[in-house]
Amino acid sequence: MHAITIGATGAVGRDLLRVLAENDAYERVEVLVRRLPELPKEHAEKFHVHIIDFEQPETWQELVRGDVLFSSLGTSKKQAGGKMSQWRVDHDYQLAAAKAARENGVPKMVVVSSVGADPASSFFYLHMKGEIEKDLQALNFPSLTILRPPSLIRHPAKRLTETLSVKVLQALNVIGLLRHMKPMPTLDVARAMAQLAKGEAQGTNIVSGQDILLYR
Question: How far, in Å, CA of 75 to CA of 60, rounded?
Answer without folding.
Answer: 21
